[in-house]
Structure formats: structure tokens, C-alpha cells
Amino acid sequence: MSHYASCDAKFTDIECLVTALNEMGLTNVEVNEKAVVLVDYKGHTRPEKANVVVRRQHVGGAGNDIGFNTETGQAIISEYDSHNSTSARSPQAKQHGGYNVRWIAELKERYAVTVITKQINKLKAHGRIIRVISDETHGNNRVLTLKV
Amino acid sequence: MKIVVKNITTGKANLKKQVMKIVINKTTGKICAMANDTVVEILSNVGHVSMKRASDVEWDDARQQWIAMEKSSSKIIARGHNRSNVIAREVAILERNLL
């Protein structure tokens, strides 16, 4: 008997999250030990707090700060930024029409691959024989093939 | 008691290498794979892992062999006298369904 394992990525690994954000064109990422307040497009503080932050000037246009709470693994993105793509700094946000669910899905994909690679390297360091033998795209899926 | 399974032709311990796939849906960001200990070990660092039964492996008394039945369709997807081989075949078939 077999089981399907499924997983919804949570942004809890700061190092991997920053790598994924950099890959998505957001290279100015602020990392704070404790969660800090986010700021809106006018410079006013918002009620949400986050410890990984892309400040509004690096989000693009009249954007608000984008934040990630690595305790909960959640992304904090304003309604405006989820629809605004014209001046977005991330090429993927331009492509997907804003920092929306499609953009988050692509960030999750890149984040997951980074975490999986990191975890495989950890297992290797502990003497386990495991490697990625292919990383391919099949239609709508990215497929990592592992040999253990 | 320690049991070591040895290859009868070489006499070496049977340390069969396993190939597995991890599939990430680019539209939703959801990750799926056929469950095993290594997959769970890896994915538990990515996020919350959920499990869903994919198949049943039962002894077919009439035919005197093992059968693997897909849970969602009740279709027999593998059969044979060697249980391990039946499980290996069903995993390969179910893994293709992930794509």
C-alpha cells in the first residue's frame, strides 16, 4: 500500500527565502531578527509585522512593503501590490500581473527547490547517499528526480 | 535477531537504489510525491506534509497472488507473486499519475 505525500511550502527558512526572492528579481531584502512593522506607499506604518522585508522602494512604483513572517511562514502582500504589475521590480510580477497568487506560487516553487537542495546536502553531509539526477519541467510541473 | 537479505548470485547485501520523484506544481506551488521515509524527511523542512492513501495491496486468495489496487478508481494496477515487486510496480505507476 502506498500514500501520496503533499506539502504546501511555508516560508520559514530565511536563507532559502532570500535566495528565492533574489531569483525573482528582488535583490534588496531586509532580514530582521525580530519582526518589524511594514510601511505603506505613503510611508505610514501598517498593522502587519514581518522579519523578512522587501521595502516599498524595491517593490516598485507606488508599492507597499512586502513582508514574510518566518514564524508562521506567511507572506504579507497588500491588495494593491497583488494587482499592480506595471512598475513591479520583479520580472515575474510583471509577467503574472502583480505580486499575486501566481507570483507566490512561483516563489514557493523556487523556495521549495532551494530547501530540498539544502536538505539533500545536509543528508549527504551525514553520510547518506542521495542526489538529484534530474530537474525538469513537464507541462505545468517541475519534477526533481532523486536517487537514494 | 539481525536479518540481512543477500543476493543469491553475488552473496552481497541487497542495498537496492531507489529513484523517486518530487513534483512541484508551478501554478499552485504545491508539492507532491509518493511517500517514503526520505521524502517525508525532506518535505517536512519545506512545509506542512499531508498524507493520502493511494492504494491497497491485498492477497488475492482465488488467484494466489498479491494485487495492488488504486484507491481512487478501485482499479488493479499491479499483480504478482512477489509482494515487494508488486509494491515497486504500483509505486512506479502511481508516481506517473503525479505528473
What does this protein structure show overall?
The complex is a heterodimer of chains A (148) and B (99). Chain A is 34% helix and 33% strand. Chain A has helices at residues 14-23, 56-59, 79-83, 91-96, 101-125, and strands spanning 3-9, 30-39, 45-54, 66-69, 74-76, 131-138, 141-147. Chain A is globular and about 55 Å long. In chain B, the strands form 2 sheets. In chain B, strands 4-5-6 form a 3-stranded antiparallel β-sheet, covered by helices on one side. A two-stranded antiparallel sheet of chain B has the order 1-2. The A-B interface holds A 1-10, 12-13, 73, 102, 104-109, 111-113, 115-116, 118-120, 123, 130, 133, 137-148 and B 17-35, 38-43, 45-57, 68, 87, 90-91, 94, 98-99. Strand 7 (141-147) of chain A pairs antiparallel with strand 1 of chain B.
Q: Which helices and strands appear, and what pairs or packs with what?
A:
The complex is a heterodimer of chains A (148) and B (99).
Chain A: E1 3-9, H1 14-23, E2 30-39, E3 45-54, H2 56-59, E4 66-69, E5 74-76, H3 79-83, H4 91-96, H5 101-125, E6 131-138, E7 141-147
Antiparallel strand pairs in A: 2-3, 3-4, 4-5, 6-7
Chain B: E1 19-25, E2 30-34, H1 37-43, E3 47-53, E4 55-60, E5 65-70, E6 76-80, H2 83-97
Antiparallel strand pairs in B: 1-2, 4-5, 5-6
Morphology of chain A: globular
Low-pLDDT residue spans of chain B = 1-14
| pLDDT averaged over residues of chain B | 87
How many angstroms separate the termini of chain A?
A: 20 Å
Major sheet of chain B, described briefly? 3 strands, antiparallel
* Residue share in β-strands of chain B: 35-45%
Q: Given the helix and strand composition of chain A, which structural class is it?
A: alpha+beta
Radius of gyration of chain A: 17 Å
Largest binding interface between chains: A-B, 43 and 45 residues
Output the strand order for the largest sheet of chain A. 2-3-4-5
H and E order of chain A: EHEEHEEHHHEE
